[in-house]
Amino acid sequence: MNRIVEFYGHTVGTPATDWARILQDENCDFTTQRCTKNRKSNSSIMIGTCSVLHGKKAPKPIIICPSRLAQQKKVFVACLGLLTGKLPGDELHLIPEVKIAGGSVDYFLVAARGTAIIDFVGIELQSLDTTGTIWPERQRLVREFGMTPSDDAETVEKACGINWKHTAKTTLMQIHHKVETFQNVGKKLVLVLQDCLLDYMRKEFRFSHFKDPADPAHALHIHAYNLTKPQDAGYALELARTVSTDMAGIAQCLALQANACWTLDDLHRVLAEKMKAETKIGTA
What we know:
By secondary structure, this protein is of the alpha+beta class. It has helices spanning about 20-25, 75, 135-145, 165-185, 195-205, 245-255, 265-275, and strands spanning about 5, 10, 25-30, 35, 40, 40-45, 50-55, 60-65, 90-100, 105-115, 115-125, 130, 160, 190-195, 220-230, 235-245, 280-284. It folds into 2 domains: about 1-65 and about 130-160, no CATH class; about 65-125 and about 165-284. It is built from 7 helices and 17 strands. This is Restriction endonuclease NotI.
């Protein structure tokens, strides 16, 4: 059995799927843009793997590409309640890849009235990192579709595994570097991940001080999603639970100290420069 569950945003095993067209287009069905998950040894080749089965007794689908979390923009809609001060008719912008003190934030969900920013929420999407490579299974899957895959040479690379420890620690470290900026300006940062990754974090790190469900006053909110497969349909994201903490909570979790950060004026300036017609996603 091939471990790949979703390929270029489509569930493997779904009847009447035009895999030849999908493989040729290399488009991600979740972002409606070209897949960005390329092979490390050849950046011109897209891997296209969104989720894989993991586990021996009761294997479950594990998300290995952050773009997979963008399905139907559910994770962004779930953050709308964290925006304050918005009025009916205010514009909503979803701005990708904004650099701040501590690193780059995947998305900013911004409520604006004309060129004036009313409020914003930072959003980070985190999938599971892998060890080894999924490439041999990806190639076998393409052959199962009746096609000859690109770069058809046999490989002897280490089989794909899930790197729980590295993903969890790296994620929390990165969030620690960024959340201070949000807390100091009275804003929220949302970490979106799969529920199994949150379960691992709670087991391996100090999470007893996190509030479950999330406390609206906290700067850091974690939205954990599970991946469910409705009958006769593909897999869908479902918000499972929310937890939260503040800047000190993340530092306590990792036994670290906090760093310097930006001001609210700094963030408003950067976001205002990036607000364009193509970032607008609707009105409040």
